[in-house]
Amino acid sequence: MHATETLNEADRLMVVCNSCRYCEGLCAVFPAMEMRRAFTSGDLRYFANLCHGCGACYDDCQFSPPHEFNVNVPKVMAQLRLESYAHYAWPGACAGLFQRNGLVIALIAALSVAVFIAGFVAWSDPGALFAVHTGPGAFYRLMPHNTMVAIFGAAFLYACIAIVMGLRAFWRDGGEAAGRDFAQAGHETATLKYLDGGGAGCRDSDTKAPDNRRLYHHLTFYGFLLCFASTSVATLYHYLLGMQAPYAWTDLPVVLGTLGGIGLLIGPVGLLAEKGKRDPLTQDSSLWGMDVAFLAMLFLTSLTGLALLGLRSTPAMGLLLAIHLGVVFGLFVTMPYGKFVHGLYRYAALARYSRERRTQTD
Ligand code: SF4
Ligand code: SF4
User: Fold this and answer.
1) Could you report the per-residue pLDDT of 260-275, keeping only the tens digit for each?
2) Tell me: the pLDDT tens digits for 10-25?
3) Cα–Cα distance between 189 and 183 in angstroms, integer?
4) Atom of ligand 1 nearest to the CA of 17
5) Minimum mean pLDDT among 45-49, 122-126, 252-256: which range?
6) What are the extents of the domains in the chain?
C-alpha cells in the first residue's frame, strides 16, 4: 500500500502493463517499468515524470475504458506528476500552492503589478509614471537600478534554491547517474524525444492525430532561453561595458529578447490550442489551472516586454515597465510551485532512465 490513492492506482496500472507489455516500444515509461517486478512510491513518481502525457498508450490499449481493467496511464500519470511536484516542494509548507495553482499565480501576478505601480509612484511621483523618459538610464528614473537588481536577484535566488531543493528530494528517491547520463538526458530533453510516445511506436501516420505540440513546445522553451540570455547579456553590458538600458534595436540584448519574445508569444498560445484538441478522457481537468496559468504568465511576460520595447519612448513606458516587472517578478516567485518544474523533473528522470538503461546493457 502506498500513501495516496493515486500512487495505489499507478501501481495497479503498472502491474497490468508489466504483464501485457504491448506498449514497450512507445516511450521511456514502459522500459523503465519492465526493469522492475515491484514498484516503490519513488519509482512510480519517477515513471510519472518520464511520461509526457502524449496519450499514445491510451489509444493503443485494449484494456482502456470501458474495459473492466480501466487502464488509463496518461491520466493517472498526470495526476501523479502533480502529486509528485507537491510531494517534493520546498519548503514543504508551500506544497499546497500546487492546488488551485491558477488562482494562486493570478493573484500573485496581479499583486506584484500593483506593488510595482505603487512603488514607482512612491519613489518618484504620479507624474513621472506618465512622463516621457528617453536615453540611457531612462528606466532607472522610475526605479533605481540597484533596487531592481536587489529585488529580482533575491526573487531569482529564492526560486533557484527552492527548485534545487525539490530536485534534490526527487533524486534521493532513487536517482543515480553519471556525466554521460546527464548529457543523454539533455539531448532527449532538448529534442523532446518522447513527446509523441517516442517515434512511430504503435501509432502509424494514418491513425496519428496531427499534433504540433513539439513545435510549440520548442518555441516556448527556446523562446524562454533566449529571453534569459537577453537579460544575462544586458547585465554584462551594464556592468562590463558601462552601457545602460534601454538599448538600441540592433544591440544583442534587444535582438535576443525580441526573438525569444516572439517564440513566447506563439509557443504558449499554440500549446494551449493543442491542449484543447486532446482527448479529454486522457486528461485530468483539475490540472488545467496550473497549465493555463504558467502559459499565461509566459505569454504576458513576452507581451508586456515587447510592448515596453515598442513604446519605450512614449508616455506609456512607465506603466508598461511596472506591469512588465510585476509579471516577471510573479513568474520568478511562482516558478518553484507551478508547471515550470515539469521540465526539470523530467530532465532528472531521463538522466536516471539513461543510467538504468546503460547498466542493463553494460
Ligand atoms: S497501456 Fe494497455 S496496452 Fe499498453 S502496456 Fe499497459 S495494459 Fe498493455
Ligand atoms: S509518454 Fe505517452 S505513451 Fe508514454 S506513458 Fe505517457 S502517455 Fe503513455
Assistant:
1) 999 999 999 999 999 9
2) 999 999 999 999 999 9
3) 10
4) 6
5) 122-126
6) 90-361
44 C-alpha to ligand 1 centroid (Å)? 16
Three cell numbers at 17?
502493463
pLDDT of residue 198: 52
Three-state SS string over the chain comes to CCCCHHHHHHHHHHHHHHHHCCCCCCCCHHHHHHCCCCCCHHHHHHHHHHCCCCCHHHHHCCCCCCCCCCCCHHHHHHHHHHHHHHHHCCCHHHHHHHCCHHHHHHHHHHHHHHHHHHHHHHHCCHHHHCCCCCCCCCHHHCCCHHHHHHHHHHHHHHHHHHHHHHHHHHHHCCCCCCHHHHHHHHHHHHHCCCCCCCCCCCCCCCCCCCCCHHHHHHHHHHHHHHHHHHHHHHHHHHHHCCCCCCCCCCCHHHHHHHHHHHHHHHHHHHHHHHHHHCCHHHCCHHHHHHHHHHHHHHHHHHHHHHHHHHCCCCCCHHHHHHHHHHHHHHHHHHHHHCCCHHHHHHHHHHHHHHHHHHHHHC
Q: What is the pLDDT of residues 60-108, one digit of tens each?
A: 999 999 999 999 999 999 999 999 999 999 999 999 999 889 999 999 9
Nearest ligand, CA of residue 52?
2
| Residue pointed to by grid coordinates 505540440 | 213
Pocket test for ligand 1, best of 11, 15, 16, 51 (most atoms within 8 A of CB): 16
- The number of the ligand nearest the C-alpha atom of 14 reads 1
Protein residue with least CA distance to atom 6, ligand 1:
17
CA of 182 to the centre of ligand 1 (A): 29
- pTM score above 0.85: yes
- CA-closest residue to ligand 2 atom 2: 54
pLDDT digits (tens, 9 = 90+) for 163-215: 999 999 999 987 777 788 999 999 999 888 887 655 444 344 455 556 789 99
The reply to whether ligand 1 has any atom less than 6 angstroms from the CB of 57 is yes
Sole residue written with cell 519574445 = 261
Q: Average of pLDDT values for 348-358? A: 94
Q: How far is the CA of 170 from the centre of ligand 1 (A)?
A: 26
